[in-house]
Amino acid sequence: MKKIYLIIGIITSILLSSCEDFLTTYPQNQLTAGTFFKTDDDFAAAANGMYSVMTGYPSEFFPMIDGITPFAGETATSRCGVFNPYNGRLPMVSSSLDFTRQCWQNMYKGIACANNILTNTEKPANVSQQVFDRTLGEAYFIRGYAYFTLVTLFGDIPLFTEPQVSYDQVLKPRTPKSEVITQIIADFEKAKQLLPSVKEYRGTANLGRASKGAAQAFLGKVYVYEKRWTDAKKEFAALVDVQDADYDLTPHYYDQFWPDGENGIESIYEIQYDPSRPAATGQYAMNRFMDFINPPAEANMNFTGGFGYLEPTEYYCDLFETLNGYKVASTYIDRTDATPGPVFNYNYESKDPKFNATAPYEIRDPRLKYTVWYEDSPAVEEFIQKTGQDNANFKSRYSKTSNHCVVKYIVGKLGGKGGYSPMNMIVMRYADVLLLYAETCIHENDLPKAVSLINRVRNRVNMPSVEQIGTIQGVDIAGNKENLMKYLQQERFRELGFEWGHMMFDMARWDILVSELKDYWTQGRDGWPTFSSTALQFTKDCYLFPIPEQEMTSNPLLKQNPGY
Which has more pLDDT, 167 or 496? Predict the structure, then answer.
């Protein structure tokens, strides 16, 4: 039995007769699927179990994937850690990295739970049609979501659509990605048909469950990743171009990253955490991401100091224009020794006549202060107002690689226990959909529509429109397809940075990650070693993660990704 539990990392769930519960009810015994699905509560508890296995280390580590890009530093002593490239080599993602193993296992646990539910497609007489349909819809959604996560990270993966009960059944080679994508699309289509609008959940205990809108949004995203632009545009239009839409932008950008902003009007899908419930086996009722990214204890932003695993670079900060729409450029000078980390010194330039190079973060896009901690940031005062932690502060020396730490999800001691947080993790929100929709419109040559969607995101933070930016910067952005696509990419970095690995995944699917890495390392940015372009060894192998070593050992039919 112990050996079987290792196979593909999923047997721990495949052999479970029911998944651990998530919200309010907890299975007390090991019922078989045939005897468990009898009542509304049984179906709801089975669905809750699927959500439960989505929590834990993999979900909390997803934002860390942005550390592969040039936009973040990582580790205490150098830019050479779990993810970051160093010495011109591939990003250092090891096949033995715990994140990849647990992500693989947890996603397959969710798939196993979903498959258990989807074998019960005949409604018992005493189960309501509403709960029955919703539970099947949730199972299709979770399975589609889990498989999409896996193919995005690993490429080809084993595909299971029925419960597996024997050793031989799980010894399966990797299924071609194209076949998995076909299954993902079918699952999201079925979920879309079965799930209710999120409006039916708002104001009820069911808020946070997958909804029809979530299925539509992820289906549109799958089409974007597959470059099926017409299909993507259809899904996004059904979410956006309708009267009384299910979603809208949160009026104040920063609010959605606080506990009282969870599952709000902008939220489409979040990983749910609840400190009042017991954690499923191997999972966590509390979110540990805050512990990973918190500045040191001296900042007084948490119960204890964080690890500073994700520290935004000045290169990233340069993406944020002035309030008047002008670019800002930083040039590294040197470092000043300090504790716990050095202070990085820069010169700053901008053509904005109101720009003050001695106060380079003033009059900048408001999303900068709500994404990146910097010394004397006004966001510290907002943090104090929200938490009551009067001694909270941030200094450049608190970061060990860049002068900065991540702001999002840092909620202090609000409901937390130790270094953990009750905050949900936002996987998909409406601004993401608007920008994905804009991207599809660019590829469909509907530039005016794309511009209007980008402007809607920028209007929320009172930034100049795309048309105004073009005039200010002296370049045609709104009317030039190539320029508009480049600006759309930068807008996604500004809007979605350090939330769910969006920047790394975007760079990979746009096929610009290698070129961005090379640009960074050949420029000698931020005082790190400078390499000639011929010395760099970056390849597109880094677009996928390695199959976890443990799974390779357990299943000899699995073959490793190139480059690992």
Answer: 496
Q: Nearest CA to 355 among 381, 389, 390, 329?
A: 329
Question: Cα separations (Å) of 307 from 83, 350, 468?
Answer: 15, 33, 41
Short-list 328, 399, 311, CA closest to 66: 311
Determine contact, residues 120/37, Cβ cutoff 8 Å: yes
> Which residues have C-beta within 8 Å of that of residue 369, sequence separation ≥ 6?
361, 377, 378, 379, 407
Quick one: pLDDT band at residue 11, thresholds 50, 70, 90? very low
Distance CA 488, CA 476 (A): 14
Q: Categorize the per-residue pLDDT at 510 as very low, low, confident or very high, splitting at 50, 70 and 90.
A: very high
Whether 158 and 175 have beta carbons less than 8 Å apart is answered as yes
State pTM to two decimals: 0.92
- Angle, CA 502 vertex, CA 499 and CA 507 arms, to 5°: 150
Q: Is 330 helix (H, G, I), strand (E, B) or coil?
A: strand
Peptide bond before residue 251 is cis, with ω within 30 degrees of 0:
no
- The whole-angstrom separation of Cα 143 and Cα 188 is 9
Local structure of residue 249 (DSSP, 8 states): -
Cα 108 from Cα 101, distance rounded (Å): 11
- As to burial, measured by CB atoms within 10 angstroms (0-12 exposed, 13-18 middle, 19+ buried), residue 110 is buried
- Kindly report the number of other CB atoms within 10 A of residue 557's CB atom: 12
d(CA 154, CA 60): 18
For the stretch 401-434, pLDDT in tens is 899 999 999 998 886 666 677 889 999 999 999 9
Closest CA to 23 of 288, 280, 195: 280
63 contacts 111 by C-beta, under 8 angstroms: no
The answer to whether the beta carbons of residues 183 and 196 sit under 8 Å apart is no
Q: For the segment 264-313, what is each residue's pLDDT rounded down to a tens digit?
A: 999 999 999 876 655 544 455 678 888 888 899 899 998 777 777 889 99
Token pair belonging to 201: 């959940």
Tell me which H or E stretch contains 333: strand 329-336
- Classify residue 280 by its DSSP letter: P
Q: Which residues pair with 19 in a beta bridge?
A: none
Q: Could you tell me which of 307, 275, 276, 272 has the C-alpha nearest to residue 289?
A: 307
Q: Is 493 helix (H, G, I), strand (E, B) or coil?
A: helix
Alpha-carbon distances, residue 65 vs 23, 39, 60, 82, 365 (angstroms): 28, 41, 11, 10, 24
End-to-end CA, the chain:
30
What lies within 8 Å, CB to CB, of 183 at 6+ separation is 144, 147, 159, 161
